[in-house]
């Protein structure tokens, strides 16, 4: 029996070493060695009643392909070669990814990987933008009816925004920016334009109906084309210029038949178009500047705080004496109700503007313009239903033509880059 076990052990060992010479590098490479792992089920007795020798018991160690308890450890030379092979593989992978259509488009990921979550996120942001804008216009109009002081209302809205921004920075909900004096100087014109745009909007809302103010503000594409020609040197196509005709015609038709028409309200809305479009163009340029490491939230936040500091002296010089508790009592205004409505208007004002800026940083200006034109339809319809604004058929037709022209303009601007790419 002992001789039979010895024979079995000898034959097994000879077969193992033969397999080792076939499956391993030549023994001239001293960098390969074997280590013993914990015993595995493979060390169970074989069908012949033999056990494989255990490492460290004087028997030769078997390679991993023969005995599961052994693992080769590469030397430093082989590790370096493996690292070079891994680096080469990563280089080939990066080159293939760079040559793929997704990388060429700047996405970095296939469309199906993040297309649906991104679409849902943008849809939720647009829905919130619309709702906040509707409630802002309703509460703001109610406040302006009670106290017709647009400069004071604007300052209060910027103060509300500054409060939320300060709270956001103190609670570390968003990282606080660290800017140089040069960067503050670059943001100052944006803040001034931002402040004037909201002052003009409130002046218009105080003089005419909400629906009419937003019908006039449908002229924004006209000012966008004008600013692009003057400052960017862009020449619009004939179709884009043609889309401005129904916009202008619809606004004129709605203005002629508007019951609440007022020249101050009309020109204030037009001035708001000019300032808001200038702000959008300059903001997009600022966000695209690589030297200014500032995100859209912090840019809007700094603009809001600076706009509050700019609007406060203007409010005190124009309306500061008129707006007082004595005036509110004499006008028979419910101060508590007024404060609640003003606070709601200021809150909606801040967050709808912030969502708008976040969208502007995530989508193209054309997509933002399309969403803005649809938002104007929602605001006009909501304000007409809430305030029961009288609309004649011709007035409604003019508003519809102007909004249809805005949508056509947006579609033509969106189709322009595709024709160039083709």
Structure described in brief:
The protein is mostly helical and 422 residues long. It has helices spanning 2-23, 76-99, 101-104, 111-146, 150-170, 181-207, 210-216, 220-232, 238-256, 263-288, 296-318, 325-330, 335-362, 365-387, 393-421, and strands at 34-36, 70-72. It is built from 15 helices and two strands.
How many individual domains? Answer: 1
* Average pLDDT taken over every residue: 75
Main sheet attributes: strand count, strand direction, barrel closure: 2 strands, antiparallel
Radius of gyration: 36 Å
Helix segment count?
15
Which blocks of ≥5 consecutive residues have pLDDT under 50? 1-24, 29-37, 40-59, 62-85, 87-113, 418-422
Give the N-terminus to C-terminus distance in angstroms.
86 Å
Describe the secondary structure blueprint for this structure.
Blueprint: H1 2-23, E1 34-36, E2 70-72, H2 76-99, H3 101-104, H4 111-146, H5 150-170, H6 181-207, H7 210-216, H8 220-232, H9 238-256, H10 263-288, H11 296-318, H12 325-330, H13 335-362, H14 365-387, H15 393-421
Helix pairs in contact: 4-13, 4-14, 5-6, 5-11, 5-13, 6-10, 6-11, 7-14, 8-10, 9-15, 11-13, 14-15
